[in-house]
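Course assignment 3, question 2. Fill in each field.
Student: A.L.
Task: Predict the tertiary structure for the chain below.
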Amino acid sequence: VNNTLTVDGIDYFVTERFGQELLNSCKEVKFGTMNTRAIDFIGGGAQTYQ
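Answer field:
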């Protein structure tokens, strides 16, 4: 954009333990205004960290 470099994507690696603990830490968080789980709204209903 305007002769500057931009990032259009990124690849990253997380260990299985980190991914699982991240999921476990937020899987029961409620999204107040919709009265539903945040993972359903933000994470598409993810069941695993993958």
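Instructor remarks: The longest helix spans residues 16-26. The mean pLDDT is 86.
Grade: pending
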